[in-house]
Amino acid sequence: MLSGGIALAGGLAVLGGASYGQGAPQPGGTLRLAQGADAQPKNILAGRAGNNTWRHQVFDALTVLDSETGQPRPVLATEWESSEDGRTFVVRIRNDARFHTGRPLTAEDVVFTLEQVMVPENASQMAPLVRAYTSIEATGTHEVTITSDTPVAPRVFDVFQLAVILDMDTFSGLADGSQVVGTGPFKWVDWVPGASLRLERNDDYWAPDQVLLDGVEISIITDSTAMANAMRGRVDMVLAMTPRDAIMFRGNPGVELIEGPGAQIFPLGLNVTAPPFDKRELRQAIGYAIDRQRIIDQVFNGVGNASCLWWRSNEPGTTEEMVTHYHYDPERARELIAAAGAEGAQVDLTVIGLAPVPAIYEIVQNNLREVGLNPMGQVVETAAFDQGQTAGDLGPAFQQIHGLQGFSAATLVDALPALRDTNPSKFTPERYRELKDALQSAQGDAYAPALVELGQFMLDEAFSHILLHTPPLHAKVQQFQGFTFNNVGFLHLAGAHLNG
What we know:
alpha+beta; Dipeptide-binding Protein, domain 1; seven-stranded mixed sheet; SBP_5; SBP_5_dom; Solute-binding protein family 5 domain-containing protein
């Protein structure tokens, strides 16, 4: 017998989170956005910075996680139920949603989407979670049943948030952006790679009163100074600004700065199979060599948190010792380097060319030189870096940038590229998998001690060092209102409007 939470869709709450702006809606107008990363339609099932502005405009998810409560909110799902042992999960979907081609949404599209999550080429961070399911079946025209050997919920809601529902008839068009078809409030119209993206209103949306804008224009601006200058009349919102650029708008009555939900984390990964990083003492030394507060002060103008963890500091079981385990201690770093016999060792670093990671590298480079290592960095364009990351091949050492903060630690350990089984650190000991499995099957009071044991093991092995967490900073004009973010920081424009 099935039992559990039932949620009914309705109103703005469908799309989760607090609404920004309280003015009376004025329908019409084209919203102008600016962002630093280009769209990657072929990776729509993955967490990619360039997709965060338009993913939930063109596509709908089954549910999203509320930015204030972290609880699931229905979108295409109307209700869901879980068996008492948690191993059978049933989700029912809307019967009035249509793809932009006019074809009705069915349960088969949900099954198809979850199957695509498991395909390695689609690079979804949720693949390990979905692969753990024993079956995904359409048990009705608008009903899907998921079974697993371990409890499906609550991690299934992390899967649902990222796995926006795909049109299986046009799926192949995602590869080059020639056909990008969802059920969302806006249609994909025109994409000039590296330059711009244009969306237009979906007049046949299942919640028509939530589509107030005529369209959305997204400009890709890679230079941070140009991004900040774009706020002066060219765009209505700039997303993911650096604190250094955002600070120029403080005190400007025409521009509102927003600290969004979720966070970015900046890992420094080490390939444990590549000498000299096969020596744990050297990996630990690098953790003590990095001056995290200097990165926060110089790169992020004081905005950020020097946590060493890959998840939120308020996750059950997290301790202050874990958060601050690696702190700036160059003397301790030198001692560990000597113990590893690695004085003067070359550190070949691959750095993603997405701001602000190259600026972080400048400080990392200086810190490593100060403790007697020889860092050699190479900045790599984002798409090429993502390719290497997906393949688990980024060289001996690498600096990444990850979002997805807001998901549980039990999900992140298999979702984040730095931590999953195919991680580019090539860290795959059996004990690591055992501890992850223990956390993911822990229920109730067993969760916190399972997280402590896993976290301490990961910190000791030092295969991936988190340098800091930073909240996303956005700038918008006052008349742009009614939009929301879900708890990992993806933008939702259903209900958004331009006042005046």
